[in-house]
Amino acid sequence: MEKHFKNRQVEEIKGNALKNEFAEKMKLTKSQKTLYHARMAELEDIQSLGSNIKKWAYEVEDEVKNAKRIVSRDAQLQDQLSQEKRKSDILFYRLDMEVKKREAELLSICQEEAAMSEVVNILNMSIANANTDLEVLQNEHKRLTHAWSEVIIAIKLRDNILFQVQDTMRSGVNKVKFGWNRSY
Q1: Helix axes 2-70, 75-182, angle to 10 degrees
Q2: CA atoms in the 13 A half-sphere facing the CB of 56
Q3: pTM over 0.85
Q4: Are 130 and 18 in contact (CB under 8 A)?
Q5: Largest CB tally within 10 Å, which of 105, 165, 171, 183?
Q6: Cα–Cα distance between 101 and 98 in angstroms, integer?
Q7: Which run of H or of E encompasses 74?
Q8: Distance between CA atoms of residues 85 and 93, nearest Å
Q9: What pLDDT does 49 receive?
Q10: Phi-psi region of 151 (alpha: psi -120 to 50; beta: other; left: phi over 0)
């Protein structure tokens, strides 16, 4: 019975450890989801900015063409516009690299979320198995407790019968002693 009680305690400790681990994994999953949504919002902002920059780049190119038509011989203006285009190209390149970096981060977050989901499923199965084991142990404990209570009742009944027999024997011995003494 003590062995079963210790086994039950061990299983309860394991169950509590699994529940704690599950709670920590759920917190981590929630934080990852929050980070995922934040990164998605950043990605949308960056993509919007990228499309605006492309639009601006096209507008700058159009302005360059108009400036060339208006002042076709002005090399200084053309050089200035070309520098602005280079800057916008560099900016566009940097933003494009940032978008690719964010997309890679998004992919990584999605993979982590899938892995966390798998861990959560495994933990749920472990908890279900632990609960089943705990239920079996509780039923065994009830059965053993019932058996022991029947044994205790039988021992009490035996003791009562023994005390009655001993009382009967004492009274019989006393009767014999007193009866023996009276015959003299």
Answers
A1: 170
A2: 14
A3: no
A4: yes
A5: 105
A6: 5
A7: none
A8: 12
A9: 85
A10: alpha
The residue written with tokens 């002005």 in the block is 74
Residue 179 pLDDT: 67
Asked if residue 80 lies in contact with residue 42, where contact means CB atoms within 8 angstroms, the answer is no
Q: What single-letter amino acid sits at 162?
A: L
The tokens for 66 are: 């108009």
CB-based contact 136:55 (threshold 8 Å):
no
CATH of 2-135, one of 1.10.1740, 2.30.30, 3.40.50, 1.10.287: 1.10.287
pLDDT in tens, the chain (184 residues): 788 888 888 888 888 888 898 889 899 889 989 989 998 888 898 888 888 888 988 988 888 788 667 766 667 767 777 899 999 999 999 999 999 999 999 999 999 999 999 999 999 999 999 999 999 999 999 999 999 999 999 999 999 999 999 999 988 887 777 765 555 4
Tokens linked to 181: 């003494």
Closest CA to 149 of 8, 3, 1: 1
Q: Which residue has the tokens 């009562």?
A: 160
Alpha-carbon distance of 165 to 160, in angstroms, equals 9
